[in-house]
Amino acid sequence: MLEVRWSSLSLRQSLTLCMALTLLPLLLAAGLGYFILHRTVVRDYQEVARREHELLLPVRNLQLLMLQVEMPLEEYLVSGSPDRIRDYRTMRRTVESTYPRLMPLLDGRLAPLVGRSREDWNALDKVVADLIAAKQDGNATALQSAQGRFDILQDAAHDKLDAAGDLLEREDDADYRDAALGLERSEWLAAIAGGISLALMAAGIGLFYRTIINSVKRLIEGAERFSAGDRDHRIEIQIPRELHLVAEEFNKMIGAIHQSENRLVEMAHRDSLTGLLNRTTWEEEVTGALQRVRRLHERFALVSADIDHFKKVNDTYGHDRGDEVLRAVANAITGTVREIDKVFRMGGEEFMILLPGSDARMAGATAERIRRAVQEQQIRAGTNILRVTISLGTAVADGNLDATALLKQADIALYRAKAGGRNAVVMYQQDMA
Fold this sequence. Notes:
Elements: H1 2-7, H2 11-79, H3 82-102, H4 110-137, H5 140-227, H6 241-268, H7 279-296, E1 300-307, H8 310-317, H9 319-334, E2 342-347, E3 350-356, H10 360-375, E4 379-381, E5 384-386, E6 390-396, H11 403-419, E7 425-427
Parallel strand pairs: 6-7
Antiparallel strand pairs: 1-3, 1-6, 2-3, 4-5
């Protein structure tokens, strides 16, 4: 039942269903994977990176600064140098300026710890004043008492920052574990989705193969037979609809190629300027006509024609006007002869007319009609009107002549017409040889 329904689908519908079976699991997996990665892995890693950059590193740096502040103060107590007091106060201001930048970034768990650390640090200022006074007075008892209070307050401020840093590190560890778990889930999801996609892809390809492949094979077989030269072969495909249309278009293409080939064959046998048959066709036609003379005792005559003074036309008016003259003469000849007669352009201004079923008298009459038709033509050359004439020689075929000999006879008669003053028709006689 499923295969019958599949076969009734169009090619587009079949491809769409196959693509859906293949891509839908991947798209669902990609969407879920993106959701899981973004909501767990990426977000957790981003939060860890933000916390380390904005909170943990500043807290640890602040702890280090606190320890460094004590060094110039201890050196002052030993040496009594005022420079060490200035160094202490400079470093203290650095610590004091760090707290205000850090406090706005803290949440409700960290803010109290860092706030109390700041209070302990601020209380150190009065203790340091007592230390300096005791040092200057030389009061050892007061100096020892102030040092004890300094150590207690500094340790308290440092420990509270240390507790805040430990809390941040525990939160980082928890987020790392969540991110690793989310990444593992994403990998499992990708593996499952890949397996499902492969299974559905195989099912879709199997259905597509069973319903479409035969039609495709027929298309390929038709193309191969066509390329092998079988121009009569036609491809029959009913389903899917698109391949049916392809087969119909292919069949139309074969017909069009038939017509094109016929036109090409025709063009190969035609003179491109005048549209008359060319010299290659002349040789085929006259050879076939001579064979029919020998076998069937048919008769035919040949007329050889040449435009008079054609070189002068070209030299005076140019080759474009000469081409117009050639076309005009060709039209005059074809408009005069019968449908069964064949007119050839042999090259340059030379023409040949093959007259099936004609004897010497009929050939002479046809040649005379051609001569008059050409003479009466008016050919426009710019503002000038050209008139040209044509000389013609005729010869009649018999069973003893070949194509070369017959053409020679017609040319001999043509030369006599030229020598006799042109614009004339001369029939070949045996004494002309």
